[in-house]
Amino acid sequence: MRSSNPVFSRRGFSRDTGYAGFNAPPQAGGPAADPYAGTNPYAQGTNNPYAQGAPQAATQAPPQYTPQTRPMTMDDVVARTAMTLGTVIAGATVGWLFLTEQLGFAIGAGLVAMVLGFVQSFKRKPSPALILSYAALEGLFLGALSGFINDLPKMNGAPMQAVLGTMAVFVTMLVAYKTRIVRVTARFTRFVMIAAMGFVLLSLVNCLFMVFGGGDGLGFRSGGMGILFGLVGVVLGALFLALDFKQVEDGVAYGAPREESWLAAFGLTLTLVWIYMEMLRLISILRD
Prior knowledge:
The protein is mostly helical. It has helices at 6-10, 74-98, 103-122, 128-150, 158-178, 186-213, 223-253, 260-287. The radius of gyration is 20 Å and the shape is globular. The chain has eight helices and no strands. The longest helix has 31 residues, at 223-253. Helix 2 packs across helix 8 (260-287), helix 3 (103-122) runs antiparallel to helix 4 and helix 6 (186-213) runs antiparallel to helix 7. 43% of the residues are buried. The protein is 63% helix and 0% strand.
């Protein structure tokens, strides 16, 4: 089952990728109890870039992990996610204070951050330096954009509302996932993937109409249609979070390498940035 997050879908956080990692017994209530679960993508094998020596049979004792190869834990994911989001917040503070009136520079930082995000998405191994650089530049862009919007008429306080809204979505989806109100199944994943592709396609078409036709394009940036489109964007972001939680849970239960926690942090950061941007756009439309 693949995540809609392009980062997770590129790496071993997906059960059907065939990526090999470590052989670790599933945790109680984890993937083994999932009727949609497949084979362990981290089972010891010859394609394992982290393996030490020859492959082991499934009946043998689990391998002895070295500091470089021990499996990641939830604490690892939390620590790396906090570090990555902290870098985003630090960058956003700088952007808010110093770049609000220099949107050209901030947009350039955002474009570079997007490139770094694509580079990391296609790298075989996570790069902490690359991920933190992405977080810093993305923070600069978000801070400058948020400060600019905050200074517009009737928009004072909108960025803070978007932050609170993003936090509320995160907590709500975490509780819904942990209590199994939201269950990530193969059908759920397919639905989110199709919806996400449709949303992105409509956004691109709208941008083309705005560039060549002028005005508001297809009307997705204002009025009732803009509100509906913004709500869909926020809901999609929330569904992405559910998929991300599932992939992280599976990675921990199946014994993903410790360094994969950086990838988990990167993927969660991407999703939270998505939700914040959609939330800010929705609040701006409602206030206008």
